[in-house]
Amino acid sequence: MGRAIDFIAREKADIVCLQEVPGPMLERLSSLPGYSLVQGRDSIHRNGFQMLPNYLVILVSQRFSITKTACMPFKKRRRDTFFAWMFGIEQTFLGWFLGWEEDLDYQYIDIQKKGCAAEDTATRLRIFNMHLSNAVGPKTRQKQFAEVLLRIERGGAMLLCGDLNVLRLKKWWGYLYRVALSDSWEELWEEENERFGELFQRQKLRSACNEAVTHTPTECHLDYVLTSENIKVIDEVVFLECFGSDHNPVFVKMEI
């Protein structure tokens, strides 16, 4: 936890989007100098006999004004899986066994440089932060992302960040993992990364560091920074060090 906070303080990024932030880390982030913090609900997980919350967090440099904040609950969907039918549970067996309650909320905020008029939409940036479900199949994640897209503003500058949990089946054991997660037999064979790539193209969203591995255990690009077409990306990199996480941070330098 301390390494991650030191990394954020050292890099001094204007915008930081985080997922799965535990309570103690949230408290420390809230006192980080030079930043304003907006939080939302991410998930609840089992720790022994306790159920503990994790949070979504957006940190914004205090050089910017936050003009709007929203935390929206994802729709709850029945998990139409064999395990849900057999055991009467509303999720996959893996999620139930591990004690996960996922996909609680997604969040978005509007920011502007200080001194700009609030009604000047050309200077506004909308930032989304999300963590799509792990213990579901591809179709459910696509529906969740579609919910987020309902909040975009056509023509406005947008930044969409988060762990989308989009799987690339590079290893044979990936199919076994899908058996535990998928909503249907057909989804077991779906090329989820290609489906999301087509979705990004239709929405004219650019994926930074696309195809680069951000989660070594699965060898997948799970963590996304998506930019609208009116944002110029100057530099992008995936850090090799994880700084206490099991995901690699993604850094994007951009011009609006």
From TrEMBL:
Q: Tell me which Gene Ontology terms the entry assigns under biological process.
A: double-strand break repair
Signal sequence residues? none
Q: Which UniProt keywords apply?
A: DNA damage, DNA repair, Hydrolase, Magnesium, Metal-binding, Nuclease
Q: What molecular functions are annotated in GO for this chain?
A: 5'-tyrosyl-DNA phosphodiesterase activity; metal ion binding; nuclease activity; single-stranded DNA binding
Tell me which cofactor or cofactors this protein depends on. Answer: Mn(2+); Mg(2+)
Q: Which Pfam families match?
A: Exo_endo_phos
Cited InterPro entries:
Endo/exonu/phosph_ase_sf, Endo/exonuclease/phosphatase, TDP2-like
The residues covered by the Endonuclease/exonuclease/phosphatase domain are 5-247
Q: Gene Ontology terms, cellular component aspect?
A: cytoplasm
Return the protein name: Endonuclease/exonuclease/phosphatase domain-containing protein
Please give the organism.
Candidatus Buchananbacteria bacterium RIFCSPLOWO2_01_FULL_46_12
